[in-house]
Design brief:
two-stranded antiparallel ribbon; Glutaredoxin; 5-stranded mixed beta sheet; alpha/beta; globular
Length: 182
């Protein structure tokens, strides 16, 4: 195969990947899931807070607004998003609960503990188990574990949820999403 043909094939593959990624990130932001909350649904998966060792499920917080993000310790955008979540809580209080779920299979509890201690983050942090990640991807697609896109799911008091627009969201934008989204 000539260099030009190989280059052409590579360009086509990159375009397909870009189009697919774009489709995943352009999810309808008003989408509310109607998926039944089965025992295996991600909202009913047991998670463990890395700081306290407390076991909890997202569904335990029904009746509260929750910002749930996936992240990786190495991700600069995730750190910036977590700084905005911290500002959100400092400026607007703790009426909304935050949960950060590490989705990088190469990171462990100690890395996450070091990350939250170094940055003085005070909300729930857990390592997301593989079945949980797979179930999230069933609901939201690959974008939910694409850490640099700073994915956040807003969960309303009634248990409905929606994926917020991709990209870094300021504390003010988070406040607006929480106010208008539920």
């Amino acid at each position: 195969m000539t260099f030009m043909k190989k280059t052409g094939i590579l360009i086509v593959l990159l375009l397909v990947i870009a189009i697919t990624a774009s489709a995943c990130t352009n999810l309808d932001e008003d989408h509310k899931s109607s998926k039944e909350l089965t025992e295996t649904h991600w909202m009913n998966t047991n998670l463990t807070d890395v700081r306290s060792g407390e076991t909890y499920r997202i569904s335990d917080f029904k009746g509260k607004k929750v910002l749930m993000e996936t992240f990786a310790v190495w991700c600069v955008n995730c750190k910036e998003q977590q700084d905005e979540i911290k500002k959100f809580h400092e400026e607007f209080g703790n009426d909304t609960l935050s949960i950060s779920l590490n989705s990088d299979p190469n990171e462990n509890v100690q890395k996450v503990k070091d990350h939250i201690t170094k940055n003085n983050y005070t909300w729930y942090y857990s390592i997301a188990p593989e079945p949980f990640i797979k179930d999230l991807m069933d609901d939201f697609g690959f974008v939910i574990i694409n850490a640099p896109q700073a994915p956040i799911v807003l969960i309303c008091e009634d248990g409905s949820y929606s994926l917020l627009p991709s990209g870094l969201k300021t504390a003010e934008e988070l406040k607006q999403e929480v106010s208008e989204g539920c």
